[in-house]
Design goal:
homodimer; alpha+beta; Arc Repressor Mutant, subunit A; two-stranded antiparallel ribbon; DNA-binding
Chain lengths: 218, 218
DNA sequence: ATAAAAATTTAGACGAGTCTAAAGAAATAA
DNA sequence: TTATTTCTTTAGACTCGTCTAAATTTTTAT
């Protein structure tokens, strides 16, 4: 039996490895879930015993196959619930994260499958993030982060890679949603900030914002 | 902040007082949530400190106003989720209890209100049990338990007062659902068992089954 | 190459919620 | 009304997940 705390650690390790493609460090995990490094060390020992991670003291940690499957299934649940909240209950995309963080821990395979079916087997959640299938397959897109685009390229927003209210509220303010047409006008080399055109209005955004916007070209 | 365990204790006290109209005893609570009397004693002390119950050592316990409101809101959530599971996700009524027991602890007032709205503000759940409103009002019916009916009375099943898979599966087997027409043919004084007619078929059921069936006459 | 800094682990403690065993209070029966 | 049974509470211990402080290992900088 896996506990709620354990699930959150697996998710944190998953999220870190996703971004860095490296082993997750104790401190990175502590940051991710806002706890002390000591607590993380403790928990890693326990997860190691349960064979959910591959861990060597002082050397960082990665998920085992078992742990990876579990993490994927939690992400699947999180994204399905977010889709439910936005598509069926009319939440807006900045409001759903905290509730989905609770719902993702509900234990019932049948519930997840029926929810999936009820939602019409969505491939992407309201933020454009891929929803892993029942078998753990993760849908792909050829979208790339806005800050990696070449100047004068046009595209369309396919997703965001940060699920934080303040970020999503800012996007809404900028008139940026999934599907919005966007053109990269200029990259400022001084601070990597970007001038963009959204629906015939010019805007200026930081690199920090741009790197969390996934764009599909043309 | 109220914990999951505390919520379950409040619910247990609520359920016991509902049936007996008396203060709940330590042992009754221990039975209800399958724990030891010692654990219950411990928890009652804590709930007392939080002013969620009115408790005198050795004298039993009842909910305070605050505790009562909380318990009602948990019941509201439980029954809304059961309604969602049956009406939207096509679970059958015997399968929903355990999942709803998890979902009822999700913390988000907005979620509950939006779910209520999405379901069309239902007054009764799939078992015919009343769903408390946002203000804590509990819809009433004039239905009475089948075992209290007079012989030769006809009526319709308006609800069941036990949410256990084995019971609900048995009802399904007997062709009894919400809305089913029923006639009480005979009460056996030896064991209080009952002969009934359901959809032109005669059946024989125990008093234990009958007392959990709510019937509206005529 | 070694000293300093940073990262990580260990040690010891705590609160929540549970348990068993034992003590104490209340109810019941002779 | 006293003895016995039943119910309830207290005492002490355990696990889980957390913490701070201290010890240890690794990395970085001089």
């Amino acid at each position: 039996m896996i506990t709620l705390a354990e699930e959150n650690y697996l998710k944190a390790i998953w999220a870190i490895s996703l971004n860095t493609n490296e082993k997750a460090s104790t401190n990175a995990i502590a940051d991710e879930i806002s706890t002390s490094a000591a607590s993380v060390s403790d928990m890693l020992r326990k997860l190691q015993e349960k064979e959910l991670i591959k861990y060597e003291k002082y050397k960082g940690v990665e998920l085992s196959e078992k742990g990876g499957n579990l993490a994927t299934s939690i992400i699947r649940k999180h994204r399905l619930w977010e889709t439910f909240l936005v598509n069926k209950l009319a939440f807006n995309w900045g409001e759903v994260h905290d509730v989905a963080e609770q719902l993702e821990h509900i234990k019932s395979d049948e519930l997840v499958d029926k929810l999936d079916s009820f939602l019409g087997f969505p491939k992407f959640d309201p933020h454009g993030e891929p929803i892993p299938t029942k078998d753990g397959e993760i849908p792909t897109t050829n979208a790339i982060p806005l800050n990696e685009l070449q100047t004068a390229t046009k595209g369309r927003v396919m997703g965001v890679t940060l699920d934080e209210k303040s970020f999503l509220d800012y996007l809404t303010q900028l008139n940026i949603r999934i599907g919005t047409k966007i053109e990269l006008l200029e990259k400022i080399s001084f601070d990597q900030s970007l001038s963009i055109n959204i629906e015939n209005t010019n805007q200026h955004i930081s690199n920090d914002v741009a790197k969390h916007l996934l764009i599909k070209i043309k």
